[in-house]
Specification:
5-stranded parallel sheet, single chain, about 375 residues, alpha/beta
């Protein structure tokens, strides 16, 4: 179990460390509220003991920021001058418990066990929720990620079309899935089309379907992605790679809410919310004549930009801890730890592949690194030898 002790009294910190390490807990220490909050953000601690009166930032403010960030850690407040009113205030603000100094050994152990049980339950509940919804949560508390989460909450309940922009590997598909998951269409299909992966001569058949005999290999009727997504959400990934001919037909569907299968002259009405994504600058593509301006305006009612990992390095510690937990769970491995200087080294890495690359590197470190992933492991394995 990982425990963080935040207290400006050195004797208290050292005593807590000695007691808890004797019980085989991994203990980190912070001498101020500001230092403790920084460590809490990147440490994935099970329990945090936090003194109320401290320099730079008092314990109540630390508690509030930890609760606001959505961390799983249980926070136990400690104080040498506590009152019932103070204890009640801390509990109301989200503290798990309140302990007065001088600290009682039995009380510490009982509180630690109960707090650990609560943290484990929170983590298990989150895992179960992910399994039920099938959608991975969006990890991070950087200003950019908070803005994206806020946009999703505001936009999801509407039928407004959304264009998601950003580099490869930043998580555009995840944003699209959450727009669907939080919408009134969540019980209906979410259909994804990778426009870059379908040959140009097949894109119309894939999107709009075809009738039997429409072309040589059309041995039976086929419903296209628009029909499959009827009532739900159609995610057009890498739409910047779609041919101009297909763009014209997509525009018609968006304008009229109806389509015609290849080889048919019958109109079929559809009720689909379209979410599109691209790693290209569509305005530049319009200037080059590669993308229709009228389609761009149809798709970009709301624009959500997903930033590259280099612009949100403060999210790397929590992302790495999340990937370690997920990968260990998927492979039936005991959960591993990563040293703080190893995380700092990952923050200095040039993440051209963004979140996707970070997950791959984390998996590589778990396979090739030591029992605790070190900075040397990161230097050795983060960049593969080609």
């Amino acid at each position: 179990m990982k425990v963080l002790v935040i207290d400006d009294e050195k004797s208290i910190r050292n005593t807590m460390k000695e007691i808890l390490e004797f019980e085989n807990h991994e203990v980190s220490l912070a001498a101020s509220g500001k230092e403790g909050l920084e460590m809490a953000h990147g440490g994935n601690f099970d329990v945090i003991f936090c003194d109320i009166k401290m320099p730079e930032m008092d314990g109540v403010e630390v508690l509030e920021k930890i609760v606001e960030s959505g961390m799983d850690s249980s926070v136990v407040m400690i104080s040498g001058h506590g009152t019932i009113d103070t204890a009640v205030e801390c509990i109301k603000k989200g503290a798990f418990d309140f302990i007065q100094k001088p600290l009682d050994l039995n009380r510490i152990f009982i509180t630690l066990k109960n707090a650990t049980d609560k943290t484990s339950l929170i983590k298990e509940t989150k895992v179960l929720k992910r399994k039920v919804s099938g959608v991975q949560e969006i990890i991070g508390e950087s200003p950019a990620i908070k803005k994206i989460k806020e946009m999703i909450d505001r936009v999801a309940a509407t039928d407004a079309r959304v264009l998601i922009t950003g580099s490869n590997g930043t998580g555009k598909e995840l944003v699209a899935r959450w727009l669907h998951e939080k919408s009134n269409r969540s019980s209906m299909p979410f259909i994804e089309v990778n426009c870059a992966a379908i040959p140009g001569e097949l894109i119309e058949s894939e999107l709009f379907g075809h009738e039997k005999g429409a072309f040589t290999s059309a041995i039976k009727q086929h419903k296209g992605k628009f029909e499959q997504a009827d009532g739900g959400t159609l995610f057009l990934d890498e739409i910047g790679d779609m041919s101009l001919a297909a763009q014209a037909k997509v525009l018609r569907v968006l304008q009229e809410n109806k389509l015609t299968r290849v080889g048919s002259d019958k109109d079929i009405r559809v009720n689909v919310r379209v979410v599109a994504a691209t790693n290209k600058n569509l305005l530049e593509e319009i200037e080059k004549g590669n993308f229709r301006e009228d389609l761009y305006h149809r798709l970009s009612v709301i624009i959500i930009h997903v930033p590259p990992l280099k612009d949100r390095i403060e999210d790397i510690p929590v992302l790495v801890k999340h990937f370690i937990s997920a990968i260990c769970e998927e492979n039936g491995m005991p959960e591993r730890q990563i040293a703080d200087d190893a995380v700092a080294e990952l923050q200095n890495h040039n993440w051209t592949g963004n979140i996707r690359e970070l997950r791959n590197v984390t998996e590589r470190l778990l396979i090739l690194g030591g029992p605790t992933i070190t900075r040397e492991d990161v230097l050795t394995y983060a960049t593969p030898n080609l």
